[in-house]
Amino acid sequence: MMTILKVPETTGKPESLGVRLLHGLVKLLFIWVPKGSPDYDGRTWDTVAYWLVEVDDEGYPNREIGFTTQHQPVLFAPTDRNMGMWTDTDRVFSLKEFEAQNEYPFAATWDALYAQTRQGTRSL
Predict the structure, then answer these.
(1) Strand partners, 100
(2) pTM for the full model?
(3) CA distance 101 to 64
(4) What are φ and ψ of residue 25, in 5° steps?
(5) In terms of CB atoms within 10 Å, which of 6, 25, 34, 37 comes out highest?
């Protein structure tokens, strides 16, 4: 059985100068290294306020949708071109750590987004 978890976006916290420099170096590195989610640029990631993440019984992420503060989906993964934020990690979610959102029509929403973007070949 799959569980849908609401995961708040936490990457928008203030950073120290050292962390910002490290992020700058990583961005330069990504100029030469292929991205796991090429359609999702920095502006898109910055608009995500929270994620709904579909996890299996062991807590491994299967699919994800990123939402704005207005509850509009702006990212979803995995698709043919985009690995995603959570689905491209080895993160195991604790069902006790996050709020379950099983009443949300996750599968229907994800499927509609996938179809809307021509079978996941580009972003929203």
Answers:
(1) 5
(2) 0.75
(3) 13
(4) -65, -40
(5) 37
Tokens of 100: 């379950």
d(CA 78, CA 110): 10
Residue 28 CB partners (closer than 8 Å, separation 6+): none
Residue 39 has pLDDT above 50, yes or no: yes
Unique residue bearing structure tokens 């991205």: 35
- Report how far apart, in Å, the C-alpha atoms of 35 and of each of 29, 60, 77, 89, 104 are: 10, 22, 14, 13, 30
Q: Over the stretch 89-109, which tens digit does the pLDDT of each residue have?
A: 888 998 889 999 999 999 999
Residue whose entry in the numeric block shows the structure tokens 């070949």: 121
| Structure-block tokens of residue 35 | 């991205």
Classify 8 as helix, strand or coil.
strand
